[in-house]
């Protein structure tokens, strides 16, 4: 009897252990399921965050693209405005400028060109003359602003009539026929010229003061040997004696040298700087720096 009771107790203990192990296994399974669900939720949250980041990056890229397109459009508009300004400029063959100096320009082949830099314009039309009223056609233009306090009343009325401010320099240019588009106050700039065209530049040469005949007219002077004395820099005879008994008009002698009106023809336009109103011409022009010169297209 005792043996039977012991067997029953052992069987009951074994069953209890089996049930406990089953419960622990089921609890472990539930924990594992909970962990899997949590990991799935974290993965889904990570995926949603990644999608949000991708969307945000796409939005930033699209905004950057739109900004770049806006910049390109703005630059295109500015270029179009500049080109329209150049194309809308009325083209006349002449303009007033100021000599800046000389420099060198190099081509792609390495060739060097001596160039004169001229600040030309902007100039404004201050008067129009017609053949019906004045007997000939011409256009008067002004260059460089001047204070009204330094301008007399007659010129102030002249500028007021043309609708422009007072100017330092005025110059009249002849025209064969005045165009209807030329009106008072019209602005002229270097946009009326193109690279490769040929211009005639007129200005005043450097003043040398009173100079002798050797420097002024390239005389050689007298002999330095064979008994000659104090004649090395003399002018020599200035004419005959009794007949004609006078010195002919125009005889070359010592006198004022320089400051003469000089025109240089067929100077090629090498470069145009529209922003600074600079024109580069091949070669030299008369006068010192800051000298006023007049540009006209060569025939």
Record the SSE blueprint:
Elements: H1 2-88, E1 94-106, E2 112-120, E3 123-129, E4 138-145, H2 153-162, E5 167-174, E6 187-188, E7 198-204, E8 207-211, H3 213-217, E9 255-258, E10 261-273, E11 278-282, E12 292-297
Antiparallel strand pairs: 1-2, 1-12, 2-11, 3-4, 3-6, 4-5, 7-10, 7-12, 8-9, 10-11
Question: How would you summarize this macromolecular structure in one to three sentences?
Answer:
The protein has 299 residues and is α+β, with helices and mostly antiparallel strands.
How would you portray this structure in words?
- The protein has 299 residues and is of the alpha+beta class.
- It has two domains: 88 residues; 186 residues, Translation factors (Elongation Factor Tu (Ef-tu), domain 3, Beta Barrel), CATH 2.40.30.
- The protein is built from three helices and twelve strands; from the N terminus they run H-E-E-E-E-H-E-E-E-E-H-E-E-E-E.
- The strands form three sheets. It has a six-stranded antiparallel beta barrel with strand order 1-2-11-10-7-12. It has a four-stranded antiparallel beta sheet with strand order 5-4-3-6, with helices on one face. A two-stranded antiparallel sheet has the order 8-9.
């Amino acid at each position: 009897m005792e043996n039977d009771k012991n067997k029953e107790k052992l069987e009951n203990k074994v069953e209890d252990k089996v049930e406990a192990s089953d419960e622990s296994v089921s609890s472990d399974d539930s924990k594992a399921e909970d962990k899997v669900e949590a990991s799935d939720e974290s993965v889904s949250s990570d995926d949603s965050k990644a999608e949000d980041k991708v969307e945000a990056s796409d939005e930033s890229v699209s905004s950057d693209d739109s900004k770049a397109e806006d910049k390109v459009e703005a630059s295109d508009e500015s270029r179009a405005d500049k080109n329209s300004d150049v194309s809308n400029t009325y083209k006349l063959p002449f303009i007033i400028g100021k000599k800046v100096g000389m420099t060198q320009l190099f081509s792609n082949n390495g060739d060097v060109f001596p160039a004169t830099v001229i600040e030309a314009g902007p100039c404004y039309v201050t008067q129009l003359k017609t053949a019906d009223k004045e007997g000939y056609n011409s256009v008067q233009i002004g260059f460089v602003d001047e204070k009204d306090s330094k301008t007399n009343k007659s010129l102030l009325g002249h500028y007021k009539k043309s609708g422009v401010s007072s100017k330092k320099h005025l110059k009249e240019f002849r025209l064969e026929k005045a165009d209807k588009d030329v009106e008072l106050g019209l602005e002229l700039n270097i946009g009326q010229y193109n690279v490769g065209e040929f211009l005639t530049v007129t200005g005043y040469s450097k003043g040398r003061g009173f100079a002798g005949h050797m420097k002024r007219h390239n005389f050689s002077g007298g002999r330095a040997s064979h008994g000659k004395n104090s004649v090395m820099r003399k002018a020599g005879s200035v004419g005959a004696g009794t007949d004609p008994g006078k010195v002919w008009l125009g005889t070359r002698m010592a006198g004022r040298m320089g400051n003469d009106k000089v025109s240089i023809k067929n100077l090629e336009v090498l470069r145009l700087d529209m922003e600074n109103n600079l024109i580069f011409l091949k070669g030299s022009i008369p006068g010192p720096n800051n000298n006023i010169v007049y540009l006209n297209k060569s025939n």
